[in-house]
Amino acid sequence: MGQPTGEGFAGPAALCVYLTGFGPFGEVSENPSATLVKELAAALGDANAATDPLSHQKKSIPPNSCPSSTPGTVGSPGITVKPAECNSPPTEAYVEKTRIKLCGWEVLEVSADAATEAAYRIHSALNNNRKQEQHLKQLETNDNSSDVGEGQRNHEANPSVPDGGRTEEPVALALHFGVNMKSNRWMLETNAKNDARFTCVDAKGCRPQTERISCCMPLEYRLRSSLCLEPIAANLRERGFPCGVSDDAGCFVCNFL
């Protein structure tokens, strides 16, 4: 588990993000999702991401354990993916431009209990940070109150200019990474299913069979992502990453998040 330690950027954020991945399980001794989370956390401002021990997995993750896709393989039906270019991590200028704030990150134990506990932490962290960013935006608006009259006149003269007195709510994003050993491409999951029927035991030895994850919803009820994933997948393919959209995350721990 980690919190951002970098200086970040001045002013309120447009996007508050919380990153999670999984540690080892079954035949996956080095989980690439753990590597991804640590690398992204470091790029987004957590100076300790590359050095601090993981909160749930007390082993270091090698920096290059994430398997790369073979160039020229089929990324989606009828589409051949061109070789991916070597891309560097997000720069400080990129983070400043996009105004992304890292609210926290962690590599989770692969168990129903750990994922359930994490869901509450993630929701609390994102909710608190979003409120803080809204407060910062309001303060920023108040600081510019002397220009409101001029801004209003400009807005009336040119309606396309945004209203200077309006504050936008920052977007809160819980971004989880998992691994599918049978897949050779990135898959963006559209939904999580309220159904735990593990094909193997989790890290705590638990193996539920056709049980509800949330007692507040019917069995097999689906919670859908609020993101429009098809354009995101298309954008990733254009950048050279084999990527598709999935409507089935299986019945293991991923559905808990």
Automatic annotation (TrEMBL):
Catalyzed reaction equations: Release of an N-terminal pyroglutamyl group from a polypeptide, the second amino acid generally not being Pro
Segments of this protein annotated with the region Disordered: 48-89, 142-167
UniProt keyword Nucleotidyltransferase present: no
InterPro entries noted in UniProt: Peptidase_C15-like, Peptidase_C15-like_sf, PGPEP1_Cys_AS
GO biological process, any: proteolysis
Pfam families, per the entry: Peptidase_C15
Compositionally biased intervals (Polar residues): 62-73
Keywords on record: Hydrolase, Protease, Thiol protease
SUPFAM superfamilies registered for this protein in UniProt: Pyrrolidone carboxyl peptidase (pyroglutamate aminopeptidase)
Active-site positions on this chain: C254
Presence of the UniProt keyword Cell inner membrane in the record: no
MF terms in GO: pyroglutamyl-peptidase activity
EC number(s) recorded for this UniProt protein: 3.4.19.3
Similarity annotation: Belongs to the peptidase C15 family.
Protein name, UniProt field: Pyroglutamyl-peptidase I
Source organism per UniProt: Eimeria tenella
